UniProtKB/TrEMBL annotation:
It is a multi-pass membrane protein. This is RHD protein. Keywords: Membrane, Transmembrane, Transmembrane helix. It comes from the Eukaryota. One of its GO terms (molecular function) is ammonium channel activity. One of its GO terms (cellular component) is plasma membrane. Belongs to the ammonium transporter (TC 2.A.49) family. Rh subfamily. Its main location: membrane. The keyword Transmembrane helix applies. It is found in: Membrane.
Length: 407
């Protein structure tokens, strides 16, 4: 135990410092903003997304009773490091893709959106990774997320900022692939559980995400932000109602289950991330919000009972049914809506749909393959994976002055 703690204490500060020095040097030489670029992102919109990522996801992952410090603290650490690395990757995109001149606020907004897959992936391995592994996973995932965007933009001609489906798909399946290489916790582990207090804080994160999700979906839209935000809100509202309904219907005593409400109320926002620009009528958004919530709750039973035990995957925060399934639903809905567009010529429509489906396959394939490679590397002895007995444990990484902790 003492050797592990010494390794953690000696490696984390130097790794963070080295990354920050690299970021400062690169920003000094490569980044400039002469004020001539026109921003299409307002500061209040950026603040909405920033609040969602930091407050929303930070509290969303605090449901484990002994992992609250790490859930919020490590989430904040990977965001502030990841935003800087993502901004650098956005700059490198300019060497491969012809991009319009952007101001600093637009750049940092795109970087914040691109960090979201890492936060989602971190939920799949919540409580099982140490800070060194999380930092390395952040750098690797953001790099390959941008590579998948380059492939979609350059080869398949699908704009990376056209929808958010790639964010949710990449984050969910990269995290699941990484989780495959981490040991499963003991069944009915005392620490792998929640309390009423931790569930309350986690629900607070859900409410933050729910409130700011319309801004998240519409932040990169040009010209139709109001329609995107409106459709997303409608879908979220229907998802919330459906979540309460199904929760009462699927429990034995007819009571609401916090685990259902915690994730299913967000399903409509995830699904609308890739279809909202093509939705012309609010009833379509409402149907998608209802279906997303149904898939979320029923999918949680299916995954926990069949899929996860068979593949030996432990999904700590349920990112598969919270983000993966609703994103797949949104992708399928996008294809159907494309096929129903009358103003598009049929030959070009068929090609566009084919390229769009290929882009989704590329995103999932890159996420799974790079996630498996990353999971294998992170479990090498060099990175000192925490023993199973110390999973979901704050005291392993944080100081508790009122407790006597021996390492």
């Amino acid at each position: 135990m003492s050797s592990y703690y010494r390794n953690f204490r000696n490696s984390v500060p130097w790794l963070i410092l080295a990354l920050e020095v690299v970021f400062i040097v690169v920003f000094y030489f490569l980044f400039s903003d002469d004020g001539t670029a026109i921003s299409f992102v307002s500061y209040p919109d950026f603040q909405d997304v920033n609040h969602m990522v930091i407050f929303g996801f930070g509290f969303f992952l605090t449901f484990l009773k002994r992992y609250g410090f790490s859930s919020t603290g490590f989430n904040f650490l990977i965001i502030v490091l990841g935003v800087q690395w993502s901004a650098l990757m956005e700059l490198l995109s300019g060497f491969f893709i012809e991009l319009p001149e952007e101001d600093g606020l637009t750049k940092i907004t795109k970087a914040t959106v691109s960090v979201t897959p890492v936060v989602i992936s971190a939920g799949a391995v919540l409580g099982k990774t140490n800070p060194v592994q999380l930092i390395l996973m952040t750098v690797v995932e953001i790099t390959f997320f941008h590579i998948s965007k380059w492939i979609n933009s350059i080869i398949l001609q699908v704009p990376g900022s056209s929808n958010m489906v790639h964010v949710h798909l990449f984050g969910a399946y990269f995290g699941l692939a990484v989780s495959f290489f981490f040991s499963e916790p003991p069944p009915r582990s005392e620490k792998n559980a929640s309390t009423s207090k931790s569930d309350l804080f986690s629900m607070l994160g859900t409410l933050f995400l729910w409130v700011f999700w319309p801004s998240f979906n519409s932040i990169l839209s040009v010209g139709e932000n109001w329609k995107v935000a409106y459709n997303t809100y409608i879908a979220l509202a229907v998802s919330a109602v459906t979540a309460f309904t199904l929760s009462a219907m699927t429990t034995k005593d007819g009571k609401f289950r916090m685990a259902h409400i915690h994730s299913a109320v967000l399903a409509g926002g995830v699904t609308l991330g890739c279809t909202d620009r093509r939705i012309q009528y609010p009833w379509i958004a409402m149907i998608l919000g209802l279906l997303a919530s149904v898939i979320n709750i029923l999918g949680s039973y299916c995954l926990q009972g069949c899929f996860n035990p068979t593949l030996k995957i432990h999904d700590s925060a349920g990112v598969h049914f919270t983000f993966g399934f609703p994103a797949v639903l949104g992708a399928l809905a996008q294809v159907i809506l494309m096929a129903l567009e009358r103003e598009t010529y049929l030959p070009s429509l068929g090609h566009f749909i084919l390229f769009y489906i290929n882009s989704l396959c590329v995103t999932i394939s890159v996420a799974v393959i790079t996630g498996l490679i990353s999971g294998f590397i992170l479990n090498l002895k060099l990175f000192k994976t925490a023993p199973v007995s110390k999973y979901f444990e704050d005291q392993f990484y944080w100081e508790f002055p009122h407790l006597a902790v021996g390492f």
